[in-house]
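Fold this complex.
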Amino acid sequence: MASVIKFDTWQNTNGEVIADTAGGARLPLSGNAIINGDFGVNQRGFSSTTSSGEYIFDRFRTNFSGGTSTFSAQSFTPADIEALGYGDATSYLRIANSSYTGASAYCLLQQYVEDVRTLSDQTVTVSFWAKSGSSSSITIELEQYFGSGGSTSVNNLGSVKIATTTSWARYSATITLPSISGKTVGANSSLRVTMWFEAGTDFNTRSNSLGIQNDTFDIWGVQLEAGPVATPFRLAGGGSKAAELALCQRYYQTMSGNNQAVGMGHATSTANIRFQMPSNQIMRSVPSVSGTDLVALGTNTVASYAISLVSPNDSNSFGIFGNATSSSLTSSAVYLLRFDTLNLDAEL
Amino acid sequence: MNEITYAIKTTDEGTSIRRTEADGTVWWVPEAPGNRHYEEYLVWVAEGNTAEVIEEP
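Structure:
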């Protein structure tokens, strides 16, 4: 005998509506557009910074002026995790602000979601967990950045101001993104997701008159998804830590070479090696390279040659290709490349 | 704004850009549209700055 179960709303154990008669199923269809929304990937080994314009937890960047901010990685306590209702949570981000003053002051946490086409002409919802040192507010703003050579950016999208308290709670903002029809998309375009924590009066429009607060904010579980409601938090990679790391490595990779020969090349002259180095993922663009103890080893003489410059010129599934400048090489000879650490940066 | 300096070297294989950040971190930057460090370098040059030329190999 067939049975039918009828319900008006279906909630998960956190009281979040995951289906109802008005909206139907509210399980995310396209997932979270924010990569590393749980701050679980930290390839840079970020612990604390007082610098603006720095990438911290993978994919997230600081952006502030007109005051002092300390962005730091914090570990959840079991009580915190119980408050969140998300057992896999390990780290959250703390932003401690002081001495902010003046009309031009601001403090932001941002993630640039690759490609301005992302979710354009759709209603989207940004959600996150937060608490603050006192009763304060956070403003959520989206910006369509059309890249270098592209159309003028469109900001002040949403600018939803949300009151926060001293206890962990989940908040959301629903925003309608405009169409990009007729716009020119240039290099490095992105949908910029911005959390405002401090804003002088110069930014009253974009921040919804947030003002100067000089407060401390804790953030975790950032999600951007299609649709008018916040669905339960999930990682962009669907929940797999390996998938989340792979998504992050499209933009940044750090590798330990352990001072072993891990790349190979041949000398095109006495001063240049055309090389190939490993890469865990195809990167978004040709990356910048930063390494320690990077040397070339002559395969016949086992002599080592200091490398003074590296110029990557290609990135594909086989690794990073480029040129390394050295001296006293044997033209046409084969060289092995050795490094201790190697960082590849293709962030937006 | 953190102080960043640039130096360049041109060889038969192309141009290498060395970006040194305030904390001493060195990045080798490709001449590749879409690389954010290269885009920042172009802005820096457009502001009237000139990179040091590296003479040694």
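The longest helix of chain B spans residues 36-46.
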